[in-house]
Amino acid sequence: MNTMTVDNRQTPRILTSVPCFFGMNEDPTRNGTITSLSAKGCFVKTKAVAAEGQTIFLSLCLSDEQRLSIEGIVVYHVDDIGFGVLFTEINAENQIAVDEFLKRSLSSK
User: Fold this and answer.
1) pLDDT by residue (tens digit) across 46-98?
2) Is-contact 59 20, C-beta < 8 A?
3) 3 state DSSP class of 93
4) What is the DSSP letter of 63?
5) Nearest Cα to Cα of residue 13 among 102, 108, 107
6) Does the pLDDT value for residue 18 go beyond 60?
7) Whole-angstrom Cα distance, residue 24 to residue 27?
8) Whole-structure pTM value
9) What is the CATH number that goes with domain 13-107?
10) Taking Cα atoms as reference points, which of 16, 22, 7, 56 lies closest to residue 35?
11) C-alpha 50: how far from its chain's center?
Protein backbone atom coordinates (compact mmCIF):
# COMPACT_ATOMS: atom_id res chain seq x y z
CA MET A 1 0.00 0.00 0.00
CA ASN A 2 1.37 3.42 -0.98
CA THR A 3 1.14 5.88 1.93
CA MET A 4 2.76 8.79 0.09
CA THR A 5 0.61 11.92 -0.07
CA VAL A 6 0.69 14.82 -2.47
CA ASP A 7 1.21 18.31 -1.04
CA ASN A 8 -0.76 20.76 -3.18
CA ARG A 9 0.47 23.89 -1.39
CA GLN A 10 1.87 26.60 -3.65
CA THR A 11 3.67 28.56 -0.92
CA PRO A 12 5.95 27.53 1.98
CA ARG A 13 4.33 27.02 5.34
CA ILE A 14 5.64 27.33 8.85
CA LEU A 15 4.69 25.58 12.04
CA THR A 16 3.48 28.10 14.59
CA SER A 17 1.19 28.59 17.57
CA VAL A 18 -0.93 31.68 16.98
CA PRO A 19 -4.19 32.07 18.93
CA CYS A 20 -7.14 33.00 16.76
CA PHE A 21 -10.88 33.46 16.69
CA PHE A 22 -13.02 32.09 13.88
CA GLY A 23 -16.65 31.90 12.90
CA MET A 24 -19.21 32.11 10.14
CA ASN A 25 -19.53 35.91 10.24
CA GLU A 26 -17.23 38.92 10.49
CA ASP A 27 -17.41 38.87 14.30
CA PRO A 28 -15.86 35.45 15.03
CA THR A 29 -16.27 34.10 18.57
CA ARG A 30 -14.92 30.53 18.52
CA ASN A 31 -11.30 30.13 19.52
CA GLY A 32 -8.54 27.98 18.13
CA THR A 33 -4.83 27.96 17.42
CA ILE A 34 -3.18 28.36 14.04
CA THR A 35 -0.56 25.61 14.00
CA SER A 36 0.50 25.94 10.36
CA LEU A 37 0.58 29.15 8.30
CA SER A 38 1.43 30.10 4.71
CA ALA A 39 0.76 33.18 2.59
CA LYS A 40 -2.37 31.51 1.21
CA GLY A 41 -3.81 29.54 4.10
CA CYS A 42 -3.53 27.97 7.51
CA PHE A 43 -4.52 25.08 9.73
CA VAL A 44 -6.71 25.88 12.74
CA LYS A 45 -6.43 23.45 15.65
CA THR A 46 -9.79 23.24 17.41
CA LYS A 47 -12.38 20.72 18.56
CA ALA A 48 -15.09 22.74 16.76
CA VAL A 49 -16.57 21.30 13.58
CA ALA A 50 -16.17 23.05 10.23
CA ALA A 51 -17.52 21.66 6.97
CA GLU A 52 -15.51 21.53 3.78
CA GLY A 53 -16.53 24.41 1.52
CA GLN A 54 -17.75 26.52 4.46
CA THR A 55 -16.76 30.19 4.52
CA ILE A 56 -14.74 31.05 7.64
CA PHE A 57 -13.79 34.43 9.08
CA LEU A 58 -10.52 34.49 11.02
CA SER A 59 -9.26 37.08 13.48
CA LEU A 60 -5.65 36.81 14.67
CA CYS A 61 -2.66 38.79 15.88
CA LEU A 62 0.78 38.10 14.46
CA SER A 63 2.21 40.98 16.50
CA ASP A 64 1.12 43.17 19.37
CA GLU A 65 0.22 46.06 17.09
CA GLN A 66 -2.22 44.66 14.57
CA ARG A 67 -5.25 42.39 14.53
CA LEU A 68 -5.76 40.73 11.16
CA SER A 69 -9.15 39.83 9.69
CA ILE A 70 -9.07 37.22 6.95
CA GLU A 71 -11.84 35.41 5.10
CA GLY A 72 -11.28 31.92 3.81
CA ILE A 73 -12.86 28.65 2.84
CA VAL A 74 -12.48 25.34 4.66
CA VAL A 75 -10.65 22.98 2.29
CA TYR A 76 -10.44 19.98 4.64
CA HIS A 77 -11.16 18.99 8.22
CA VAL A 78 -9.87 16.37 10.61
CA ASP A 79 -12.36 15.26 13.23
CA ASP A 80 -11.48 16.43 16.76
CA ILE A 81 -8.27 18.10 15.52
CA GLY A 82 -9.11 21.05 13.27
CA PHE A 83 -9.41 22.27 9.69
CA GLY A 84 -7.41 23.72 6.82
CA VAL A 85 -8.33 27.12 5.38
CA LEU A 86 -7.53 28.64 2.00
CA PHE A 87 -7.53 32.44 2.24
CA THR A 88 -10.02 33.99 -0.20
CA GLU A 89 -10.30 37.59 1.03
CA ILE A 90 -7.32 39.31 2.60
CA ASN A 91 -6.58 43.00 2.18
CA ALA A 92 -3.14 44.20 1.07
CA GLU A 93 -2.12 45.41 4.53
CA ASN A 94 -2.99 42.06 6.14
CA GLN A 95 -1.24 40.13 3.35
CA ILE A 96 1.92 42.17 3.94
CA ALA A 97 1.69 41.40 7.68
CA VAL A 98 1.38 37.65 6.97
CA ASP A 99 4.24 37.75 4.45
CA GLU A 100 6.52 39.63 6.89
CA PHE A 101 5.68 37.21 9.72
CA LEU A 102 6.54 34.29 7.44
CA LYS A 103 9.77 35.92 6.29
CA ARG A 104 10.86 36.57 9.90
CA SER A 105 9.98 33.04 10.95
CA LEU A 106 11.74 31.39 8.00
CA SER A 107 14.89 33.49 8.40
CA SER A 108 15.18 32.64 12.11
CA LYS A 109 15.48 28.90 11.36
Assistant:
1) 999 999 999 999 999 988 778 999 999 999 999 999 999 999 999 999 999 99
2) yes
3) helix
4) S
5) 102
6) yes
7) 8
8) 0.86
9) 2.40.10.220
10) 16
11) 13
